[in-house]
Structure formats: C-alpha cells, structure tokens
Amino acid sequence: MKDVYVATGYKKWGMTTSNIAAKIITAKILGKTNKYEEIFTATRLRPIKNRWELGEMVKESTKSLILNGKKVPRCAHLGCKLSWNNLEKTWDCPCHGSRFDEKGNQIYGPAIKDIEIF
Ligand code: FES
Known about the structure:
alpha+beta, Rieske Iron-sulfur Protein, 4-stranded antiparallel sheet, 4 strands
C-alpha cells in the first residue's frame, strides 16, 4: 500500500535496527534515499537472481533438521524452534536471541536453562 511502511524481523536487535528502519522510512517519506535501504529491504532476497544465497539457506535449514533426526530443538525461553548455526556451532533462537552450544548448554539469554539435544 502506498504510504504504509512496515519494519519488522529485528531478531533481538530492535534497539539498533529499529533506529535504522526509522531513518530509512523518514528518508522515504521525505523523498530521499538512505544508503542502508538496499541492505534492509524486505525484497532483497531474489531467489532467481540469488541462487547461491537461497541454496545456502536451504542447506543450513536442512542441516538442523538432519542433525536431530526429525525433531528440531525448542528454546528453553518460550519454546521457539531453534536454528542450527553451522558457522559458530550453536543453536540460535530467532525469537529473542537465546543461544545454546552443541550439547544444549545455554550460552546466551534470555533463556536461563539448557535445552535437551536429541
Ligand atoms: S523463545 Fe527463544 S529466546 Fe525467547
């Protein structure tokens, strides 16, 4: 819709990225451009043009499913499905940013308990 702006998906980085979103939206309202607009635009992922990135995303999400058979671990905070971070070898929660090591030990809150790895 024209003149309707939505900023979302901060993944625990709302204090920082909401300010960037506000600056981008302000620039758009004023008819200007912001140098970060392209980085944060919701349509930046173009599967046809960006097959490598899409392939990596599918590969990463598949790894987390394969790693634990059919079950994906749930966060000890509020129960969101965790994603396997193959680079850092951690289970990361997309909801509020909790992180767990390979064995399920809590390494970053807001979760305060470990998780069970199957
Ligand atoms: S549900 Fe995972 S950090 Fe909140």
